[in-house]
């Protein structure tokens, strides 16, 4: 179980970092980073549930988007 959770977190972080390396706008980069951090946070707080991960990604993306204003 711990290995599966660690792998999932590593994949989310890797995808987030690879997306932010592209030629994105500042707002787009902050949204992607917020979604990645939110997904990891949601997964950790809910024990890896899909709903918690997706909810965390949505909330983190929204926060990252709004911080850029």
TrEMBL record:
Keyword annotations of the record: Lipoprotein, Signal
Annotated coiled-coil segments of the chain: none
Protein name: Osmotically-inducible lipoprotein B
Entry keyword annotation includes Signal: yes
InterPro entries, alphabetized: Gly_zipper_2TM_dom (IPR008816)
Highest taxon listed in the record's lineage: Bacteria
Positions of the Glycine zipper 2TM domain: 31-67
Residues of the signal peptide: 1-21
One Gene Ontology CC term in the entry: outer membrane
């Amino acid at each position: 179980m711990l290995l599966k959770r660690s792998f999932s977190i590593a994949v989310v972080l890797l995808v987030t970092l690879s997306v932010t390396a592209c030629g994105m706008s500042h707002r787009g980069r902050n949204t992607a980073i917020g979604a990645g951090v939110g997904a990891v946070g949601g997964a950790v707080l809910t024990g890896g549930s899909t709903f918690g991960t997706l909810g965390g990604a949505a909330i983190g993306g929204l926060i990252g988007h709004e911080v850029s204003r």
